[in-house]
Amino acid sequence: MGKLDAGDKARPSPSGPGRQDRLAAGLRGQAGRRLLLPRDDTPGCTKEACQFNDNLHAFAKAKVPVLGISADSADKHRKFREKYGLTFPLLTDADHTVGEAYGAWGEKTLYGKKSIGVIRSTFLIAADGTVARPWYHVKADGHAAKVLAELEA
Questions:
Q1: Contacts 24+ apart (CB under 8 A), 132-136
Q2: Can you give the pTM of this predicted structure?
Q3: Catalytic residue positions?
Q4: 26-85 pLDDT, tens per residue?
Q5: Handedness of CA 128, 133, 138, 140 (dihedral sign)
Q6: How far apart are CA 64 and CA 23, in angstroms?
């Protein structure tokens, strides 16, 4: 699937047994932020996740809950959250269904080498279920501040 533009219908978040189903259902009708992260506990993902976590109060004030999504297992997410004190939910997209639906899974270049994987992306989802703003190929460091600045503009 191709990249999403502002106004496109948002795709569902990952769901599965238990909490993820309830979490996805609980966010229906709310604005939200979905981060598609390549991998837990890597330098870029850690920096980005920690910066979003450090700004959760500001996101809550803007009524924008934050969700992180990657292919990592629930156990790996739990360890990552504990290690860095992350308090926002991390959901599993093991088969890349969500990444593909958002246009955030595909060819990318890292250090001059092309590969297939998660394209670091962020999506602001409006309360009506549409994409208010997509960000593709983001730089981890400073991205949370850029998103907040745009929310506050």
A1: 132/6, 132/31, 133/6, 134/3, 134/4, 134/5, 134/6, 134/102, 134/103, 136/3, 136/103, 136/104
A2: 0.86
A3: 45
A4: 445 556 767 778 899 999 999 999 999 999 999 999 888 898 888 899 999 999 999 999
A5: negative
A6: 14
